[in-house]
Each structure stands twice: as C-alpha cells, then as structure tokens.
Amino acid sequence: MAQYSRLEVAQVMKDTGLVPLFFNSDIETSKKVLKACYDGGARLLEFTARGDFALEVFTALTKYAIAELPGMIMGVGSVTDAAAASLYMQNGANFIVTPVLREDIALVCNRRKVLWSPGCGSLTEIARAEELGCEIVKLFPGGIYGPDFVKAIKGPCQWTSIMPTGGVSPTRENLEGWFNAGATCVGMGSKLIAKDANGNFDLDKIESMTKQALDIIKDLRS
C-alpha cells in the first residue's frame, strides 16, 4: 500500500522540483544510493524497473525508506503495463512513472489514488493524460524536445504540469532553461547518480550534486 496519496506526492514534486531516478540490481548498493539522495535533500526517488528481480530490490528499498528515511517517497519508473503497476503498488509504490501513455495503467493507479506520470511527446497525448486524471505529465525524452517545447505547451495550457526526464543535468544553465520555460519539476538520472572512474557509485558526489540541484531550483523560483 502507498504511504502517500497522489495529491501529497504531487505537492512534494512541485515543492522540491526534483525526482532522482536510478536502477541497480544489488539491494545494499541501492540503499546507499537512496541514502545519498536523501542526505542531499531529495524527498522522492524513482526506482527504474529495468532489470530482472527489480520488484524484489524495490520492495527492500521501500521497507528501508519507511524504517530509516522519514519523509522519503518511493516510486517506480519504466513501468509498461497495468499488471506491473499493480504489483509495485502492492509493494509500496507511492507513484508510477511510465515511458509511454497507457490507459490501463491510468485505471489501476486511479483506483488506488496513486499518482501516475506517463511519458508524453505531444500536446494531444498530454491532453489525453490529463483527461485520464494525470496530475504531472512526464516529458520523455526531455532532451529531444527541450525547454522550448515546455514553453510552447504552457502557452495554451497554463494548467499543465510537466516533468522533463532525460537530458536534465544538475547545472544552473540546464535547470534554468527548464524552470524558466515552466517545468514543474525534473527527473534526473545518470547526470545526478554519479559513478567514479571504476564504475562504482560516488556517494559523496551524488549527495553534493543533489543538494546543489535543489539549491539551484530553489534559487530559480525565488
């Protein structure tokens, strides 16, 4: 069961402006990355379900977050069908992120009042997602469309909340482009979840860059 309602999750997305995302098949390694994001100030994490036994890792991470990281909202990404979405929600997912717009996922998430954020690439898809109850639309792949796309959408549809994912980095120049264009929040993966020269997660850098990104976002909004 989700610990947070979709409206609570949407509000935290809007307030913090950042959703880190990553996948790793090792539970203990994943806990360390989650803790680094949390210590940097992130209060949401999208665990991307891109490998075998991802459900087992996500379930362990969610239990860890509930026990050790107060206020950390766990969600899952790269979900492509309603059955998978249901399994993750039964194992504590507070939000579901998808690379595509699928109405079957909308139905099962709405039934449980869990926030779902579908990947959309056109105004028609965005409008359909909102008709299906979507609070925050994922623009994916964000780097292909760019901030100008967000700005153009916000012109006729000022009520639309957009989360670009892909092509987002924790630099002031990049974040300024997105938030000045009207993005509600951003999803950030490999540019934030840093690795060292040996391919291991650089936990200190992940923490510092998370804090830096959140500070930049806060400053841009002030």
What can you tell me about this protein's structure?
- By secondary structure, the chain is an alpha/beta fold.
- It has ten helices and eight strands.
- A four-stranded parallel β-sheet has the order 3-2-1-8. The protein has a four-stranded parallel β-sheet with strand order 4-5-6-7.
- Strand 5 (115-120), helix 6 and strand 6 (137-139) form a beta-alpha-beta unit.
- Helix 8 (147-154) packs parallel to helix 9 (172-181) and helix 9 crosses helix 10 (203-221).
- It is globular, with a radius of gyration of 16 Å.
- The N and C termini lie far apart (36 Å).
What's the average pLDDT? 97
- SSE class: alpha/beta
Q: What is the terminal separation in angstroms?
A: 36 Å
Which value, in Å, is the CA radius of gyration? 16 Å
Number of helices: 10
Q: Provide the succession of SSEs.
A: HEHEHEHEHEHEHHEHEH
Strand order of the largest sheet: 3-2-1-8
Low-confidence stretches: none
Keywords:
single chain, 222 residues, alpha/beta, 4-stranded parallel beta sheet, 10 helices, globular
Structure, briefly:
Helix content is 48%, strand content 15%. The protein is built from ten helices and eight strands. The strands form two sheets. The chain has a four-stranded parallel beta sheet. The chain has a four-stranded parallel beta sheet with strand order 4-5-6-7.
List the helices and strands and how they pair.
Layout: H1 6-16, E1 18-22, H2 27-39, E2 44-48, H3 54-68, E3 73-77, H4 82-90, E4 95-98, H5 103-111, E5 115-120, H6 123-131, E6 137-139, H7 142-145, H8 147-154, E7 162-164, H9 172-181, E8 186-188, H10 203-221
Parallel strand pairs: 1-2, 1-8, 2-3, 4-5, 5-6, 6-7
Helix pairs in contact: 2-3, 2-10, 4-5, 8-9, 9-10
